[in-house]
Amino acid sequence: MRSSNPRLLIVAPSWLHDWWKGGKVLAPPLVLPLLAGLTPPEIDVQLVDENVELVDTNTNTDWVTISCMTASAPRAYAIADAFRQRGIPVVMGGIHPTVLPDEVGLHADAVVIGEAEPVWQMVLQDLARGTLEARYQGAKYCDMKGLPLPRRDLLQRDRYLTVDVVQTARGCPNACTFCTVSKVAGRHYRFRPVPEVIDEVQTCKGWVGFVDDNITGNPNRAKELFEALIPFRIRWVGQADLNMAKDFELLSLAARSGCQAMFIGFESLLPENLRETHKIPNVGIDMGAAIATIHRAGIEIIGSFVLGLDGDDRDTFVQTVDFAKRHKLAAAQFSVLTPFPGTVIWEQFVREGRIIDYDWSHYTMSKVVFHPRKMTNLELQDGRDYVYRRFYSFPSIFMRSLTVRGNLQLRILRFLVNLSYQRIGCKKGMTMGLPTS
Prior knowledge:
Radius of gyration: 21 Å
Order of helices and strands: EHEEHEHHEHEEEHEHEHEHEHHEHEHHHH
Strand order of the largest sheet: 2-1-3-4-5-6
Distance between the termini: 34 Å
Strand content: 5-15%
Mean pLDDT: 90
Low-confidence stretches: 428-437
Protein backbone atom coordinates (compact mmCIF):
# COMPACT_ATOMS: atom_id res chain seq x y z
CA MET A 1 0.00 0.00 0.00
CA ARG A 2 1.68 3.20 -1.17
CA SER A 3 2.03 6.31 0.96
CA SER A 4 -0.58 9.02 0.46
CA ASN A 5 2.18 11.61 0.58
CA PRO A 6 2.93 13.35 -2.73
CA ARG A 7 6.05 12.00 -4.44
CA LEU A 8 8.73 14.32 -5.80
CA LEU A 9 11.54 13.17 -8.08
CA ILE A 10 14.56 15.50 -8.25
CA VAL A 11 16.92 14.80 -11.15
CA ALA A 12 20.39 15.98 -12.13
CA PRO A 13 20.73 14.82 -15.76
CA SER A 14 24.07 13.78 -17.19
CA TRP A 15 25.50 14.35 -20.65
CA LEU A 16 27.69 11.24 -20.31
CA HIS A 17 25.50 8.16 -19.97
CA ASP A 18 28.09 5.40 -19.94
CA TRP A 19 31.37 6.61 -18.46
CA TRP A 20 30.43 6.04 -14.80
CA LYS A 21 29.77 2.31 -15.03
CA GLY A 22 32.00 0.30 -12.74
CA GLY A 23 33.62 3.24 -10.95
CA LYS A 24 33.02 5.93 -8.38
CA VAL A 25 32.14 9.55 -9.07
CA LEU A 26 33.97 12.31 -7.24
CA ALA A 27 30.91 13.87 -5.54
CA PRO A 28 27.18 14.43 -6.11
CA PRO A 29 25.67 17.71 -7.33
CA LEU A 30 24.86 19.65 -4.17
CA VAL A 31 21.54 20.82 -5.65
CA LEU A 32 20.01 17.36 -5.15
CA PRO A 33 20.35 16.98 -1.37
CA LEU A 34 19.92 20.74 -0.84
CA LEU A 35 16.53 20.86 -2.59
CA ALA A 36 15.54 17.74 -0.68
CA GLY A 37 16.51 19.51 2.55
CA LEU A 38 14.31 22.46 1.60
CA THR A 39 11.33 20.16 0.97
CA PRO A 40 8.80 19.57 3.78
CA PRO A 41 8.93 16.07 5.34
CA GLU A 42 5.37 15.25 4.25
CA ILE A 43 6.62 15.02 0.66
CA ASP A 44 8.37 11.78 -0.32
CA VAL A 45 11.56 12.73 -2.14
CA GLN A 46 13.66 10.60 -4.48
CA LEU A 47 16.99 11.84 -5.84
CA VAL A 48 18.51 10.66 -9.12
CA ASP A 49 22.00 11.72 -10.15
CA GLU A 50 22.48 10.45 -13.68
CA ASN A 51 26.21 10.39 -13.14
CA VAL A 52 25.60 7.17 -11.22
CA GLU A 53 22.20 5.90 -12.44
CA LEU A 54 19.85 6.68 -15.30
CA VAL A 55 16.42 8.02 -14.43
CA ASP A 56 13.45 5.73 -15.07
CA THR A 57 10.90 7.92 -16.84
CA ASN A 58 8.21 5.30 -16.07
CA THR A 59 8.71 5.55 -12.31
CA ASN A 60 5.77 6.35 -10.07
CA THR A 61 5.97 10.00 -9.09
CA ASP A 62 3.64 12.96 -8.84
CA TRP A 63 6.05 15.80 -9.65
CA VAL A 64 9.47 16.12 -11.25
CA THR A 65 12.15 18.76 -10.76
CA ILE A 66 15.21 18.88 -13.02
CA SER A 67 18.32 20.99 -12.47
CA CYS A 68 20.59 21.28 -15.48
CA MET A 69 23.64 22.93 -16.93
CA THR A 70 24.12 23.72 -20.61
CA ALA A 71 25.73 20.42 -21.61
CA SER A 72 23.01 18.40 -19.92
CA ALA A 73 20.13 20.49 -21.32
CA PRO A 74 19.27 18.11 -24.22
CA ARG A 75 19.13 15.18 -21.82
CA ALA A 76 17.05 17.28 -19.41
CA TYR A 77 14.62 18.10 -22.23
CA ALA A 78 14.25 14.42 -23.12
CA ILE A 79 13.52 13.50 -19.51
CA ALA A 80 11.07 16.38 -19.09
CA ASP A 81 9.24 15.56 -22.32
CA ALA A 82 8.85 11.92 -21.30
CA PHE A 83 7.30 12.78 -17.93
CA ARG A 84 5.06 15.49 -19.37
CA GLN A 85 3.72 13.02 -21.93
CA ARG A 86 2.49 11.04 -18.93
CA GLY A 87 0.79 14.14 -17.52
CA ILE A 88 3.34 14.65 -14.75
CA PRO A 89 4.24 18.33 -14.18
CA VAL A 90 7.92 19.22 -14.57
CA VAL A 91 9.80 22.14 -12.99
CA MET A 92 13.25 23.03 -14.34
CA GLY A 93 15.95 25.24 -12.85
CA GLY A 94 19.70 25.66 -12.71
CA ILE A 95 22.30 27.61 -14.66
CA HIS A 96 21.00 26.89 -18.17
CA PRO A 97 17.32 27.64 -17.36
CA THR A 98 18.41 30.86 -15.67
CA VAL A 99 20.17 32.19 -18.78
CA LEU A 100 17.78 30.70 -21.39
CA PRO A 101 14.37 30.46 -19.69
CA ASP A 102 12.33 30.80 -22.88
CA GLU A 103 14.04 27.84 -24.52
CA VAL A 104 13.74 25.74 -21.38
CA GLY A 105 10.08 26.74 -21.03
CA LEU A 106 9.29 24.77 -24.18
CA HIS A 107 10.04 21.59 -22.24
CA ALA A 108 8.83 22.43 -18.73
CA ASP A 109 5.61 23.41 -17.02
CA ALA A 110 7.56 25.89 -14.90
CA VAL A 111 11.04 27.43 -14.95
CA VAL A 112 12.80 28.72 -11.84
CA ILE A 113 15.11 31.61 -12.74
CA GLY A 114 17.96 32.36 -10.36
CA GLU A 115 18.48 30.85 -6.93
CA ALA A 116 15.58 28.63 -5.92
CA GLU A 117 15.64 28.82 -2.12
CA PRO A 118 13.27 31.82 -1.71
CA VAL A 119 10.59 30.44 -4.06
CA TRP A 120 10.86 26.68 -3.49
CA GLN A 121 8.04 26.50 -0.95
CA MET A 122 5.80 28.47 -3.33
CA VAL A 123 6.64 26.08 -6.18
CA LEU A 124 5.71 23.07 -4.01
CA GLN A 125 2.47 24.69 -2.85
CA ASP A 126 1.49 25.50 -6.44
CA LEU A 127 2.28 21.95 -7.50
CA ALA A 128 0.00 20.64 -4.75
CA ARG A 129 -2.81 23.00 -5.77
CA GLY A 130 -2.36 22.41 -9.49
CA THR A 131 -1.75 26.14 -10.06
CA LEU A 132 1.83 26.03 -11.29
CA GLU A 133 3.06 29.26 -12.87
CA ALA A 134 5.20 29.34 -16.01
CA ARG A 135 7.99 31.35 -14.35
CA TYR A 136 9.27 31.72 -10.82
CA GLN A 137 11.77 34.48 -10.31
CA GLY A 138 14.04 33.27 -7.56
CA ALA A 139 16.21 35.70 -5.66
CA LYS A 140 18.97 37.02 -7.81
CA TYR A 141 21.28 36.56 -4.85
CA CYS A 142 19.62 34.96 -1.84
CA ASP A 143 20.59 35.26 1.82
CA MET A 144 22.88 32.41 2.84
CA LYS A 145 21.74 32.36 6.47
CA GLY A 146 19.60 29.56 7.81
CA LEU A 147 19.96 27.07 4.97
CA PRO A 148 18.74 23.56 5.91
CA LEU A 149 21.03 20.58 6.10
CA PRO A 150 21.23 18.75 2.75
CA ARG A 151 19.52 15.32 2.70
CA ARG A 152 22.67 13.26 2.10
CA ASP A 153 20.83 10.22 3.42
CA LEU A 154 18.95 10.09 0.09
CA LEU A 155 22.17 9.70 -1.94
CA GLN A 156 23.88 6.46 -2.92
CA ARG A 157 26.92 7.03 -0.72
CA ASP A 158 28.82 4.03 -2.08
CA ARG A 159 28.82 5.49 -5.61
CA TYR A 160 30.91 8.55 -4.68
CA LEU A 161 34.35 9.23 -3.28
CA THR A 162 32.50 11.57 -0.91
CA VAL A 163 28.92 12.79 -0.51
CA ASP A 164 29.93 15.39 2.05
CA VAL A 165 29.90 18.48 -0.15
CA VAL A 166 29.37 21.75 1.71
CA GLN A 167 28.88 25.31 0.48
CA THR A 168 30.01 28.15 2.74
CA ALA A 169 29.61 31.08 0.31
CA ARG A 170 28.39 32.06 -3.15
CA GLY A 171 29.59 34.60 -5.68
CA CYS A 172 32.96 35.63 -7.11
CA PRO A 173 34.35 39.16 -7.52
CA ASN A 174 36.23 38.19 -10.67
CA ALA A 175 34.49 38.44 -14.04
CA CYS A 176 36.29 35.87 -16.17
CA THR A 177 34.84 36.15 -19.66
CA PHE A 178 34.35 32.37 -20.06
CA CYS A 179 32.73 31.75 -16.66
CA THR A 180 29.05 31.77 -15.68
CA VAL A 181 29.64 32.17 -11.93
CA SER A 182 29.66 35.96 -11.74
CA LYS A 183 26.66 36.07 -14.11
CA VAL A 184 24.55 33.62 -12.12
CA ALA A 185 25.87 33.91 -8.54
CA GLY A 186 26.99 37.55 -8.57
CA ARG A 187 30.29 39.37 -8.11
CA HIS A 188 29.93 39.90 -4.37
CA TYR A 189 30.60 37.13 -1.85
CA ARG A 190 27.66 36.06 0.28
CA PHE A 191 28.72 34.08 3.33
CA ARG A 192 26.99 31.55 5.51
CA PRO A 193 27.60 32.21 9.21
CA VAL A 194 30.64 30.22 10.28
CA PRO A 195 28.76 28.53 13.18
CA GLU A 196 26.20 27.19 10.68
CA VAL A 197 29.00 25.83 8.50
CA ILE A 198 30.58 24.14 11.51
CA ASP A 199 27.24 22.59 12.50
CA GLU A 200 26.92 21.08 9.02
CA VAL A 201 30.52 19.87 8.93
CA GLN A 202 29.91 17.96 12.15
CA THR A 203 27.25 15.91 10.35
CA CYS A 204 29.75 14.82 7.68
CA LYS A 205 31.25 11.36 7.90
CA GLY A 206 34.20 11.44 5.54
CA TRP A 207 36.21 13.80 3.38
CA VAL A 208 34.54 17.18 3.03
CA GLY A 209 34.41 18.98 -0.31
CA PHE A 210 33.88 22.72 0.04
CA VAL A 211 32.24 23.77 -3.23
CA ASP A 212 32.66 27.54 -2.91
CA ASP A 213 34.00 28.89 -6.19
CA ASN A 214 36.86 30.52 -4.25
CA ILE A 215 36.99 29.66 -0.58
CA THR A 216 40.02 31.92 0.03
CA GLY A 217 38.68 34.85 -2.01
CA ASN A 218 38.06 36.85 1.17
CA PRO A 219 41.17 36.04 3.25
CA ASN A 220 39.82 37.37 6.56
CA ARG A 221 36.66 35.30 6.35
CA ALA A 222 38.65 32.26 5.17
CA LYS A 223 40.93 32.54 8.19
CA GLU A 224 37.93 32.73 10.51
CA LEU A 225 36.45 29.60 8.92
CA PHE A 226 39.71 27.63 8.88
CA GLU A 227 40.46 28.45 12.51
CA ALA A 228 36.99 27.26 13.50
CA LEU A 229 37.54 23.98 11.62
CA ILE A 230 40.83 23.07 13.33
CA PRO A 231 39.36 21.34 16.43
CA PHE A 232 37.30 18.94 14.31
CA ARG A 233 40.26 17.27 12.58
CA ILE A 234 38.52 16.84 9.26
CA ARG A 235 40.14 16.36 5.87
CA TRP A 236 38.85 18.58 3.12
CA VAL A 237 39.38 19.83 -0.42
CA GLY A 238 38.25 23.14 -1.87
CA GLN A 239 38.60 25.64 -4.70
CA ALA A 240 40.79 28.73 -4.53
CA ASP A 241 43.06 31.01 -6.54
CA LEU A 242 46.81 31.55 -6.53
CA ASN A 243 46.60 34.61 -4.30
CA MET A 244 46.50 32.24 -1.35
CA ALA A 245 50.22 31.65 -1.87
CA LYS A 246 50.91 35.27 -0.84
CA ASP A 247 49.41 34.86 2.64
CA PHE A 248 51.43 32.53 4.85
CA GLU A 249 48.99 32.79 7.77
CA LEU A 250 46.15 31.76 5.46
CA LEU A 251 48.14 28.81 4.12
CA SER A 252 49.06 27.67 7.61
CA LEU A 253 45.47 27.86 8.85
CA ALA A 254 44.21 26.02 5.76
CA ALA A 255 46.68 23.19 6.30
CA ARG A 256 46.00 23.00 10.06
CA SER A 257 42.25 22.90 9.41
CA GLY A 258 42.67 19.76 7.31
CA CYS A 259 43.00 21.07 3.76
CA GLN A 260 44.47 18.30 1.63
CA ALA A 261 44.11 19.83 -1.84
CA MET A 262 42.86 22.88 -3.70
CA PHE A 263 41.33 23.03 -7.17
CA ILE A 264 42.99 26.12 -8.68
CA GLY A 265 42.27 27.78 -12.01
CA PHE A 266 45.56 28.54 -13.76
CA GLU A 267 43.64 28.82 -17.04
CA SER A 268 46.62 29.88 -19.17
CA LEU A 269 50.38 30.36 -19.01
CA LEU A 270 50.17 33.39 -21.33
CA PRO A 271 49.76 36.83 -19.69
CA GLU A 272 47.81 38.17 -22.68
CA ASN A 273 45.24 35.40 -22.28
CA LEU A 274 44.87 36.15 -18.58
CA ARG A 275 44.36 39.85 -19.22
CA GLU A 276 41.89 39.35 -22.08
CA THR A 277 39.77 36.91 -20.07
CA HIS A 278 39.98 39.04 -16.89
CA LYS A 279 41.64 36.29 -14.87
CA ILE A 280 43.09 39.06 -12.71
CA PRO A 281 44.36 36.98 -9.73
CA ASN A 282 46.87 35.23 -12.02
CA VAL A 283 48.25 38.31 -13.78
CA GLY A 284 51.83 38.99 -12.75
CA ILE A 285 52.13 35.91 -10.53
CA ASP A 286 55.04 33.49 -10.80
CA MET A 287 52.85 30.40 -11.04
CA GLY A 288 55.66 27.94 -10.45
CA ALA A 289 56.77 29.74 -7.28
CA ALA A 290 53.16 29.93 -6.06
CA ILE A 291 52.73 26.18 -6.58
CA ALA A 292 55.92 25.48 -4.64
CA THR A 293 54.73 27.68 -1.76
CA ILE A 294 51.37 25.91 -1.56
CA HIS A 295 53.05 22.51 -1.76
CA ARG A 296 55.41 23.45 1.09
CA ALA A 297 52.34 24.13 3.22
CA GLY A 298 51.32 20.50 2.64
CA ILE A 299 48.46 21.25 0.25
CA GLU A 300 48.18 19.46 -3.08
CA ILE A 301 46.91 21.20 -6.21
CA ILE A 302 44.43 20.12 -8.86
CA GLY A 303 45.00 22.52 -11.73
CA SER A 304 42.52 23.82 -14.27
CA PHE A 305 43.61 24.99 -17.73
CA VAL A 306 41.59 26.41 -20.64
CA LEU A 307 42.80 25.54 -24.14
CA GLY A 308 41.88 27.53 -27.23
CA LEU A 309 42.01 31.08 -25.89
CA ASP A 310 42.77 33.68 -28.52
CA GLY A 311 46.47 33.84 -27.66
CA ASP A 312 46.93 30.06 -27.90
CA ASP A 313 48.63 28.35 -30.82
CA ARG A 314 49.82 24.80 -31.49
CA ASP A 315 52.77 25.20 -29.09
CA THR A 316 50.37 25.79 -26.20
CA PHE A 317 49.59 22.11 -25.71
CA VAL A 318 53.16 20.94 -25.11
CA GLN A 319 53.91 23.95 -22.91
CA THR A 320 50.81 23.41 -20.78
CA VAL A 321 51.20 19.69 -20.16
CA ASP A 322 54.94 20.08 -19.50
CA PHE A 323 54.17 22.75 -16.90
CA ALA A 324 51.56 20.59 -15.19
CA LYS A 325 53.86 17.56 -15.06
CA ARG A 326 56.96 19.52 -14.07
CA HIS A 327 55.21 21.03 -11.07
CA LYS A 328 53.71 17.67 -10.06
CA LEU A 329 50.10 18.75 -9.94
CA ALA A 330 48.13 16.03 -8.19
CA ALA A 331 45.61 16.13 -11.05
CA ALA A 332 44.53 18.57 -13.72
CA GLN A 333 41.58 19.47 -15.88
CA PHE A 334 42.32 20.60 -19.45
CA SER A 335 39.19 22.18 -20.89
CA VAL A 336 38.46 23.37 -24.39
CA LEU A 337 37.31 26.97 -24.26
CA THR A 338 33.52 26.80 -24.36
CA PRO A 339 31.34 29.88 -24.99
CA PHE A 340 28.50 29.13 -22.58
CA PRO A 341 25.30 31.15 -23.07
CA GLY A 342 25.22 34.10 -20.70
CA THR A 343 28.98 34.64 -20.65
CA VAL A 344 30.90 37.57 -22.09
CA ILE A 345 32.77 35.30 -24.46
CA TRP A 346 29.47 33.92 -25.80
CA GLU A 347 28.37 37.43 -26.69
CA GLN A 348 31.76 38.16 -28.28
CA PHE A 349 31.80 35.00 -30.40
CA VAL A 350 28.21 35.51 -31.52
CA ARG A 351 29.11 39.03 -32.70
CA GLU A 352 32.18 37.71 -34.49
CA GLY A 353 30.33 34.78 -36.08
CA ARG A 354 32.75 32.28 -34.56
CA ILE A 355 30.31 29.78 -33.05
CA ILE A 356 29.94 26.74 -35.29
CA ASP A 357 27.89 24.39 -33.14
CA TYR A 358 24.70 25.12 -31.19
CA ASP A 359 24.13 21.54 -30.01
CA TRP A 360 24.23 22.00 -26.22
CA SER A 361 25.23 18.37 -25.71
CA HIS A 362 28.60 19.28 -27.23
CA TYR A 363 29.20 22.05 -24.67
CA THR A 364 31.09 19.68 -22.36
CA MET A 365 34.37 21.63 -22.40
CA SER A 366 35.86 18.68 -24.26
CA LYS A 367 34.60 19.51 -27.78
CA VAL A 368 35.35 22.44 -30.06
CA VAL A 369 32.21 24.45 -30.81
CA PHE A 370 33.82 27.65 -32.15
CA HIS A 371 36.53 28.85 -34.54
CA PRO A 372 39.84 29.35 -32.66
CA ARG A 373 41.92 32.36 -33.67
CA LYS A 374 45.39 30.86 -34.19
CA MET A 375 44.68 27.26 -35.13
CA THR A 376 42.08 25.12 -36.83
CA ASN A 377 39.20 23.43 -35.04
CA LEU A 378 40.84 20.04 -35.59
CA GLU A 379 44.18 21.24 -34.23
CA LEU A 380 42.49 22.42 -31.04
CA GLN A 381 40.59 19.14 -30.63
CA ASP A 382 43.68 17.06 -31.28
CA GLY A 383 45.73 19.26 -28.95
CA ARG A 384 43.27 18.83 -26.12
CA ASP A 385 43.26 15.05 -26.58
CA TYR A 386 47.08 15.00 -26.71
CA VAL A 387 47.35 16.90 -23.41
CA TYR A 388 45.03 14.47 -21.63
CA ARG A 389 46.82 11.41 -23.00
CA ARG A 390 50.21 12.69 -21.89
CA PHE A 391 49.18 13.94 -18.46
CA TYR A 392 47.12 10.86 -17.66
CA SER A 393 49.45 8.25 -19.07
CA PHE A 394 50.18 5.58 -16.47
CA PRO A 395 53.84 6.66 -16.06
CA SER A 396 52.68 10.24 -15.43
CA ILE A 397 50.00 9.13 -12.97
CA PHE A 398 52.51 6.97 -11.13
CA MET A 399 55.10 9.75 -10.93
CA ARG A 400 52.62 12.34 -9.65
CA SER A 401 50.47 10.14 -7.42
CA LEU A 402 52.54 7.37 -5.93
CA THR A 403 56.03 8.84 -5.66
CA VAL A 404 55.17 12.05 -3.78
CA ARG A 405 54.74 12.70 -0.06
CA GLY A 406 51.79 11.46 1.94
CA ASN A 407 50.67 8.28 3.65
CA LEU A 408 49.58 5.21 1.70
CA GLN A 409 45.87 6.07 1.97
CA LEU A 410 46.46 9.53 0.51
CA ARG A 411 48.60 8.13 -2.30
CA ILE A 412 45.90 5.62 -3.19
CA LEU A 413 43.30 8.39 -3.19
CA ARG A 414 45.45 10.47 -5.57
CA PHE A 415 45.75 7.46 -7.83
CA LEU A 416 41.96 6.89 -7.86
CA VAL A 417 41.27 10.55 -8.61
CA ASN A 418 43.72 10.40 -11.52
CA LEU A 419 42.06 7.27 -12.87
CA SER A 420 38.70 9.04 -12.67
CA TYR A 421 40.02 12.00 -14.66
CA GLN A 422 41.69 9.62 -17.10
CA ARG A 423 38.48 7.66 -17.64
CA ILE A 424 36.40 10.68 -18.57
CA GLY A 425 39.01 13.13 -19.80
CA CYS A 426 40.84 10.85 -22.19
CA LYS A 427 37.55 9.77 -23.75
CA LYS A 428 34.86 12.38 -24.20
CA GLY A 429 34.00 14.07 -20.94
CA MET A 430 35.16 16.39 -18.27
CA THR A 431 34.69 17.37 -14.67
CA MET A 432 34.27 20.81 -13.17
CA GLY A 433 35.96 20.80 -9.81
CA LEU A 434 33.46 20.10 -7.08
CA PRO A 435 29.88 20.08 -8.32
CA THR A 436 27.32 22.53 -7.02
CA SER A 437 24.54 21.93 -9.51
